[in-house]
Structures are given as structure tokens and as C-alpha cells.
Amino acid sequence: MAFTTEATEESSTERGADDLLGPGRAIAATLRGTLGPNGLDKMVIDRSGSVVVTNTGATVLDGLEIDAPIGRVIRDAIRTHARHVGDGTTTTALLVGELLDAADGLVERGLHPTSVVDGYASAMSHARDALDELTVPVDPGDERVREVASTAVTGRWDAASARRFADITVDALRSVDFDAARLTLHAYPGGELADSERVTGILVDLDGSSTTVDGFGTDGRRTLADPTVALVDGEVTTPTAEASGTVTVRSPDDLAAVREHERAAESELVRSIADRDVDVLVCQKSINDAAKTELARAGVLPVERTRRDEFDAIARAADATPVTAVADLERDELGRAGSVRRRSVGGGTVVELSGLPGESHESLLLRGGTPHVAEETKRIVEDCLAVARHAASGGGVVPGGGAGMTAVFRAVADRASSVDDRSALALDAFAEAVTVIPRALARNAGADPIDALVALRNRHHDGETAAGVARSGAVRDMFDAGVVEPVAVPARCLETAVRTAGLVLRVDETLDAKPIDGSGADGDGHRGTGHSGGDGHGHAHGDGHGHGDGHAHAHGDGRGSGGGRDGGYPWALSH
Ligand code: ADP
Ligand code: MG
């Protein structure tokens, strides 16, 4: 991407260590106390004044108002990580903070930032080897998968709830062969966390999806036993006289005749549905009002405007073949369900289809006192799902509680002592940095972080490579304690942290970019593309390494993509 001006030249202002390193440190400092099973909660108050009490790293991060551009780069990188990996947000933030801190010391001692970045990259490859060595394979049916799930949710709720959620999540996942597409989460405010439940079947959310159901439940019929299910992938309607536009009405008698004709068409439609022994009619689009009432009267449950994903799931689970129009409906295309039930959940209504003969489908009905709590519960369960799927997908698991990072520490420190050039410094710094995880776990458990670290080093040195910091703060075997995580989690945390620290370290200074022509409307459009932060400030990073190709980073997606417009941006850079 062509930037034309000062960004390519040596920076004219001092590299402001605080500007660039400060935000990373601040984010890490904010999150440190939330790490692990003893992590304390943060009270996050958003702009609208609503309050969330949480110790989930991603939620805290979302609640932070970060003005510094570098801070936003870091937050976005961590968010991207959280989206892809599902766990390890806090860990990543702490690692970024520590890697930046360590780099700062090295740069002060005269090491060039690029040497630090290179040293970190080489440390990363040793780190990966160390984690691989620690990895134990697991089978989808293993008890370990359950332990992975409960490790991921430890500290979010009381121990019993954590265990229960881990159990229902893993049981549900197993029943759908770990296919996330067949497991749906529904969060409903109102009620207690303990009212959350696993439903083997499909829940159709009648409020969220604007689906409406008439004549069902209102007259006391709440459950249909063993119904047939017809799926219409379109709308159910009868042609009305107005719609056809060809009828001329000259007298009240004519009008009555037209209405009579419409009613006859409706009755015909309803009869044709009822005649085919349809008990539940699930329609992807709308069902005309009069037909709905008629259907309900004829004993057919009409479900209209069903969300596409729910519609498809019902088709597969009920073994039904969707048709585009009611006229195409054949008996052998009807699906079945063991029962269809209407339920009121926290002020909302759902239709529950269970006992389905086709492809298995699971739903988790998650409850929480307020919309925020319900959503937070959903978020935690999503993380739990993600790690359980990672673990079951064959990648293997490593002991948690900082055991993985201790192994990384040893491997990288070992390597540092065997090289005799300057890169040893960066390796050493990296090794030190990763111990932030066991240190923070120990401190949060009320134990002395240095004592814990010494004990960990000794135990690992003696071959007890599963030694980590337990919930009590004591050092013990994490496999025995059932504290395990998919190797993908620590590995990806380290990768994200190294990449993000590298990004920050390579920044020499922050420059403001302004449009050359200053034209209002269009200029904004361009900003939107190039700078997903969308705040009206562009930021260019001179790379400062003499490549002579100053470039712009998009702040916002954390991947540094520039938006891909050809021919550069209409910007000029100025200080
Ligand atoms: P993150 O956002 O990084 O996932 P968490 O607050 O979830 O942060 O803490 C994760 C860390 O806590 C991991 O290092 C994990 O191994 C550790 N951990 C989780 N449960 C336990 C436990 N019961 N005992 C010791 N460590 C645990
Ligand atoms: Mg976690």
C-alpha cells in the first residue's frame, strides 16, 4: 500500500515507550486478578450504565474503554483469538503484557526491536515443541473431555454448577458427534442458573424468530403426542381477490360472492392439509391469518416464519422432506416427532420438538436472572463447547494450572543457555515472560508466586512435567487434579501473544493520517474501509527498519489487513 510521505522516513519524534507499551501493560494489569479458578470478578459498567459482574476475560475486555490506538490493536488481536479458540483470553492478554515488558528492558539495554521480535519467534518454535512433548492424546469418549470442559468453566460459577454445565455440554456434544451445527444454545433471562437444562431435540424460539403459533397452548392443549410434521419451505396462502386484481365488484352481492370464494379456497387448503394427516405444519415463511385460524380449528398446529437454521434442523431431525407448496405435500414426505410441546420460558415462548427419529439434535436452554447474565452464561458455555470440541478433535490435551507454561519456560531457557549470540537475551526474556501464568495463578490463590515458581521448576526438573498450580495454590499433578486443556489453547495463546507483541514492537511511532482533499462524505467511506476502528483517525506505522515502505495497518480486525483497495488511499500523513 503506497504511503507517500513521512512514514517512510526516520521518525522525527522519540519512540514513546509509554505510548506504545503502556496500553498492553494496562490491559494485562486489569486482567491479572481474574485469571484461573480463584480469579476475582470485575464489575464492568457499560456506557448505558448497565452492569455486568464477570471474570471472563473477553467480557472484561469488551467493557474496557480503550482510547490508545495500540491498545485497540491489542484488544482486537485478543478478540480474534477468543473468537477462534474460545478460551485463553486472559492468558493471552497477560502474555502480551509480559512480552512487551520484557522487550522494553531488552531495548533499553540496546537490543534492536527487530532482534527481540526475531528472538521471540524462535522461542515460539521451541515452545511449540515443549507443548507437543507434554501432549496426551484423547478420545472423544474419554473422561478427559469432561475434565477439559470443567477446567474451562472453573471459577465462573460455584463448583457444582461448573461441573453440571461441563456435564450437560459434553453429553449434548457427544450425542451429536461433536457437530456444533447440531447443538443450539438458547439464552433466556428470568429464572435461575440452575433452571438451565439440556433438551434432546429442537427448540423453536417463538419470540426471537418472530415465529407465531396460533391456537396451540391457548386452549389448554400444550402437548401433541406422536405428531406428524410437514415442512413447507415457502408461504402458505390462498389467492385473494385483491391480490389477483382482476375482479370487479359492482354490488354488495358481488363482494359477498368474492369473500365466499376466498373462504372456500381456504377451507380447501386447510382440508387438503388435514386430509394428509398433518399434525404440525412448519412453514418457513408466513401462513395467512385466516388459514392459521382454520388450521388450528382443524387440529393442525401452524408454526410460521421459522428461522432458516431451525427449519433445516427440523427437516433433518424429523426426517421430513420440505416442499415448496402445500399442494406438493405427500404423506411419505411428512416427518415425525415423539412429542411437540409449547413451553413458556421466562416470559418468552418456545415450541419443543423431541423424540425425533432422524439426525440427532441437542439444545441447551440457558437461564440467568437478567439478559446480561443469560448472555454471559451463553458465552461461557460457548467457550466450554469450543474447548471440548478441540479436545475431541484429536489434538490432545496438556495439563493446565500453568504446567504447560512451566514446560515452555524450561525448554526455552535451556535453549537460551546453549546459544552464544544476542538472541539468547530474547529467549531468556521470553522464558521469564511465560511464567506470568503460574505466577498469577499462585498469587490469585493467595500463595507466594516465587515459591510456587521454584517448586514448579524443581518438580518439572524431576520429571513431573504435569505439575501445576492447583486451585488451593499448592503445586500438584494437574492430570490427577483433572485440570487439563486442549494443547491448542496454550499454543494459540502463545502464538497470538507473540504476534501481537511483534506488531506493537515494530511500531516506531503513531502518525495521524488525514485525507488529502478533506472531502467529507466520500472520505468517510474510505476510512471505513481502511481503518476498521472507524473512529475517523487513521494511523500509519512507519516500520522504521529501512525498507522504505511505510505502511498502514488496519486497526480493528487485528489481522493488519489494509482493506485491499487498489492504488492506495487518498491520505497524506502528518504529525
Ligand atoms: P483464560 O481467559 O485465559 O481462559 P481463566 O480465568 O479461564 O483465563 O483461567 C485459565 C487458567 O486457569 C488456565 O491456565 C487453567 O489451566 C487454569 N485453571 C483452570 N481451572 C483450574 C484449577 N481447577 N486448578 C488450577 N488451575 C486451573
Ligand atoms: Mg478460560
TrEMBL record:
Bias category Basic and acidic residues: which stretches?
534-558
Fetch the InterPro entries from UniProt: Chaperone_TCP-1, Cpn60/GroEL/TCP-1, GroEL-like_apical_dom_sf, GROEL-like_equatorial_sf, TCP-1-like_intermed_sf
Which superkingdom?
Answer: Archaea
UniProt region (Disordered), positions on chain? 1-21, 513-575
Could you confirm whether the keyword Chaperone appears in this record?
Answer: yes
- What GO molecular functions are on record for this protein? ATP binding; ATP-dependent protein folding chaperone
Record key words, sorted: ATP-binding, Chaperone, Nucleotide-binding
* Claim: S-adenosyl-L-methionine is one of the keywords in the record: no
* PANTHER family tied to this protein: CHAPERONIN
Its family remark reads: Belongs to the TCP-1 chaperonin family.
The entry's protein name is Chaperonin Cpn60/TCP-1
Give the organism the record lists.
Answer: Halorubrum lipolyticum DSM 21995
